[in-house]
Amino acid sequence: MLHSFTQSDFDEKIEAAYALMKQCRLCPRACGAERLENDTSGFCRSGRNPLIASVTPHYGEEPPLSGVSGSGTIFFGNCSLRCVYCQNYPISQQGNGVERTPGELACQMLWLQEQGCHNLNLVTPTHFMPPVLAALRIARERGFDLPIVYNSSGYESLEALRILDGIVDIYLPDMRYSDDEPAMHYSEAPRYREINRAAVREMFRQVGNLVLDGRGIAQRGLIVRHLVLPGNRSGTEGTMRFLAGEISRDVWISLMGQYFPAYRSGEFGSLARKVTAEEYDDAVGIMEACDLENGWIQEFE
Ligand code: SF4
To answer: Which atom in ligand 1 lies closest to the alpha carbon of residue 21?
Structure first.
């Protein structure tokens, strides 16, 4: 949707985004870190410029995103959550990555387009949203026009999301928990339920249900990811009821069963094992009982 903006509209968005980065309130934690001064004291330990962990066509995303030519993923280092089971913890928690300027990031976006990727997939971009927008503006001037996927933890501030209205084409948020207690215990995320649900409502307001082109490639819309945790710590029923009742029965859901005990999960008894086939089947049954039929479930061994 980048083409629907003039560059001066875009400049206003970028200015509003950088204003959130000063005494940072880019995410709901509102740490107040002086990010424009490269102050890394905030919860996400990030400074002004984005930390880039990888830039690559990715073939393992949901089928309408990966298609045949891959989803053009850019993985950002650091995160505004601290999930004890994060499978990408060297990137999200240990800050692996290389600092890039918006101009350098724009070149990486253009490179993904040159590879034939179907979209630009920004993985956990929230804490770097202002320089990402600045990079998009530069890339657009040079011919970048892929659909933009905002692949997010789902722990988002409404103020930041509203800046993205008209820029992001496809929102891909997690809904990790339907209760605050496990969200706090496993991800240090206060008020997760309320914040996450408000964010998903706003994302849906902006982009609606998934729209595919004639090749089955996503052009616009919302896809919700729900990772089933052992012992139903993810609260699948609460999340599915919310989606069916307050978002749409046609919403697309990626029900993920690939949990395995990574990072610090061994310290948290209930998370120190894989999800069983029965637990995953239960989650599928809940989705079906809520009449949620769009999306992807996994073969489970
Ligand atoms: S983006 Fe980082 S510094 Fe900013 S409020 Fe969130 S955790 Fe704090």
So the answer is: 4
